[in-house]
Fold these 4 entries.
Entry 1:
Amino acid sequence: MAAKGSRKGAGGKGSNRRAKKGTGGHSRRGLRGKGPTPKAEDRVYHPAHQRKLQREQEEAKQAQREAYRNRTSIKITPGNELIVGRNPVFEAVDAGIGITRVFVASGMNDERVMSVVRAATAQGAPIVEVTKRDLENASGQPAHQGVGVEAEEYSYCTAQDLLDRADRKGVPALIVALDQVTDPHNLGAVLRSGGAFGATGVLTTVRRSAAVNATVWKVSAGAVARVPVARETNLVNALKELKTAGCFVVGLDGNADLPLEELELATQPLVLVTGAEGRGLSRLVRETCDQIVSIPIASAVESLNAAVATGITLYEVARKRRAA
């Protein structure tokens, strides 16, 4: 009779051995997923990948051709501005700003252009003959009229300088303040309207405001040479200082209850504040205003842009001042 525990089976001597590990762990790596299937154009063996490479090569060639077309021999010194067009160049020269070089397109025989060139070179600036494409590429302005000048960087003044200017003229101040208006086209258009309707100057801020550049010179038709631009760090503080000096601050807002024609402060020293399109006047600027006025418009038109609204308001103020 076999001894207890000697037989095979559950109680046999093989039952004390350690169980072997299962095979699941051995093939775990093979069970891992390989991630999402790459796009067809990212698989090197797929025809879509070849089409992608051809497309990228064509885009690179197009970029090279574009760079070749946009190249220019005009290199402006950092800090200087390129001003193009007969009127802007004439106004810049007439204002006495520093002219470094005068650029004239080859074959230019227009007597009006040449008169501007003679006025510019009277300051001693050399003439540089360039192509029309050079002027267009350097300035970004296709309507350059074949003439341009490299001028020193625009010199901004302060809000106090604008008040002093009004005092010298013996007229009540009429200052346009722009609240975060960043489009240079709007700044140029406001300067042009300011020159037409007797504005003392335009007040902007160092940050979040358009700077005086070649676009502003062009759009303003040179009015930037006659209507000074003041720059302050904080618009609210500048408005408070102008109020302390005796100015009334009037903001423009399409939702205001007081229509422009009922404005009774037109004959007083005035600061007109225009906000950015879409956002309008910022909260702190609005709270600083003495009055908020609106321009009544037809219901078919939702709103006016900053430059147009400012021009209409300047005209109305100038009309009321003449009537007074």
Entry 2:
Amino acid sequence: MPVDFPPWDRVYAFFRRWRDHALVREFHDRLRPKVREELGRDAEPSAGVIDSQSVKADAVVGADSRGFDGGKLVNGRKRHVVVDTLGLLLGVMVTAADTGDRAAAQVLLRQVADVHHQLELVWADGGYTGGLVEYCLATFALVLAIVKRSDDMRGFVVLPKRWIVERFFAHLMRTRRLARDYERRTTSAEAMVCWSMTLLMTRRLARPGPGRG
């Protein structure tokens, strides 16, 4: 804790109050339209990208909200996110790492579609194939476009539109608190993701001149 801050328990009391009253998310959501408009975009997005990131959990994370991701070989939690085409966060949900991407996406996309009414298209990777595509179109009037690797691709390849969300995850990992999951509650973990993006957006808005963003 910085030396000019109050004792940690007092700081955490403020964070807990802001988290429980959804103020952390409100701070974040008020900044995103401003950043988009600064870059010449509409305040509300019409397209986005969905993906998930499995991260190791600290010992304080209980067994009720942690699991093992067999694909990534990670024991911990999974961050499911939807970002716009600028890489700005539209929605986040934290679950145990063994939660399937398609199951989480049904919940997260409903939350995002309820708030962002102009959203029409979301890109996703092959992990979101199956009935989810038809479900999104029928339930949310949302086109879920699957971006797949071609058969001749070898090694690590960042697919079109997929680099947007990969850059988002890279930013999260630069935030030391998010390098692994240290939060007892998933709501705290979600608030930390919003807080990290709030710091990013305030820095972008504070930049002088045409190079901002």
Entry 3:
Amino acid sequence: MIYFDNAATTRPYDEVLRTYQEVATKIFGNPSSLHHLGSNATRILEASRKQVADLLGVSYHEIFFTSGGTESDNWALKGVAFEKERYGRHIIVSDIEHPAIKESAKWLSEHGFLVDYAPVDSRGFVDVAALAELITPETILVSVMAVNNEVGSIQPIKAISEVLDDKPTVTFHVDAVQAIGKIPVSWYLTSRVDLASFSSHKFHGVRGVGILYKKEGKRLAPLLTGGGQEHHLRSTTENVAGIAASARALRMVFDKEEIALAKISKMKQVLLQALGEFDGVHLFSGNQDFAPNIITFGLKGVRGEVIVHAFEEHDIYVSTTSACSSKAGRPAGTLMAMGVPQKEAQTAIRISLDDDNDMSQVEQFLTIFKHIYTKTQKVRK
């Protein structure tokens, strides 16, 4: 099997699964319980929080655990909106955000908030000047992803941070779900970033665990109320085993980041060069200013799902665009925002690499692609 769909989800490391099993089996107490089983669970929970904070270079008190990236994104947008609505009701998000952001923004627009969408250029990068023009005295939140999940464009977070430097009343949120282990932490956690979202299963952790970084002193309304967990901001019994496993996954990813990125980048270069030699192949992703693991391309006249299933017959797994959009049968929203015609956007295929992959898999992929290319020749005429 060749798995080239790592932007959708990654395989949990064996060590991560062992951590999960050990904690779930031996330290199964509720952290809110007063007895020693609860105390042991609290100790693991807080040790995991400190490890995550140390790895991200932030304070222990700035890390909050959620059920995943979607919850973290929802909490960031809705939590800020309802906490700050007395000061303004204007929100800006980019036009290429993940559905967790875009649908949250849409929901807020249906509940009295004004949402503007910052445009992107033809390569999928946010137009910083256009975003700056959207800011008004009523603006309370700007949300921009660090790495686009569909084409891999690395967004100008530092430039946006500079725009917001003299606007302390505007909360800046970054969806960093696709950034862990792909670009330096300093890129997406600038001193101006107030909130950032992460998801464990994107960096070889387990599903059902997310992280929200909240800069100390920033206020956020809770989405979940109840028992008062996570400093009364996110009530529900914590998934201690999943959190401990996620902390270990994050450490492992950072420990091997330099070597892994060199390997992944080399594979991407080979794929980009090889795919670019085929007539009728449109490369939507580039090398410079793009994440090292994502390549999105299209084969003229052939819908993306046809290619996905053709590869699947050879036990090779890729996707059309994001996992959320592909199953719904929607063309890549990022490509549409980039000005790509819908018919062309519907041809999109996304390869997303990991250091679990190797050059022999790249060669096998290209061999099978040549076969599919020939097989679809009549369709493309």
Entry 4:
Amino acid sequence: MRRTRSESMEENRGKLITAARKAFAEKGFADASMDALTAEAGLTRGALYHNFGDKRGLFAAVVNQIDGDMAQRAKRRGAAAGEGWDALLAEGAAYIEMALDPEVQRIVLLDGPAVLGDPSLWPSQNSCLQATRQAVEDLMSQGVLKPVDAEAAARLISGAALNAAMWVAASAEPESVLPKAQEAFQALAEGLLATR
């Protein structure tokens, strides 16, 4: 059965992203060779440029994919913790813990901001922010959280989790920093609770 042009393009995109995830995780953005990466994918540099524009465009696609994976992992952890407030806290703690994953650490938390700029402007982070805002609004309507601006609360919760994860990722001893970061994240978030 013959593949359509769009199926072939999608397959090539997938091959490039898979090879790039490996290269960026092992070597970092700056040292990842596009020639080696495209050879690993069995494609040409032209395929890279056609699908992503340039190395930065490919990197953005990789970050978006990993960020999506991270969101799913955090959601599963939140669902396992229960619902409402417990789920929201568990998702934040899980996000921070993912800073121990070498791929997440190198690509999303260390190279990501350096290459792509402010993470709060990334499309994947924006969708996480909107989900957090919805959770905050729900918790406020239930009287669980103080009636503050939902956008501000969501940005502060998301920002605290992201910055804690970045601290863990950049630390010389991430395993010892992780519990400190998670404890402080929880203490900060609990300041939003309506009753203590």
